[in-house]
C-alpha cells in the first residue's frame, strides 16, 4: 500500500483533514471491492436477463398458486403480532 502526502488547507486542522482523507480512501477502496464482487456475481450467475421473474425463487406462471404464496407470506407476518398478543393474554 502506497501512502501519499496530502496538503491540508490552512483553515482546517491537520489531524481532521488527514482523518477525512483516510476515511474517503477507505470508502473508495470498499466501493471498488464491492463493485468488483458484484460484477463477478452477475457474470457467473448464468442469468441472461430480459425475462421477467427469471431470478425469483417462485414461479409466476400459476396465478392462483402465486396468490396463495403471497397471502401465506404476508398473512403470517401481519398476523403474528396478534397471535403473540393472544398467547400472552391467555398466559395470565
Report the strand count: 0
Count the helices. How many? 2
The span between the termini is 63 Å
**Structural shape:** flat
Global mean pLDDT: 78
Q: Which percent range fits the helix content?
A: 55-70%
What is the N-to-C succession of helices and strands?
A: HH
Q: Beta-sheet strand percentage? A: under 5%
State the low-pLDDT regions, or none.
none
- Main beta sheet: strand number and arrangement? none
Q: By helix and strand content, what is the structural category?
A: mainly alpha
Would you summarize the structure shown here?
This is Cytochrome c oxidase subunit 7C, mitochondrial. By secondary structure, the chain is an all-alpha fold.
How would you describe this protein?
By secondary structure, the protein is mainly α. Helix content is 64%, strand content 0%. It is built from 2 helices and no strands. It has helices at 14-43, 63-91.
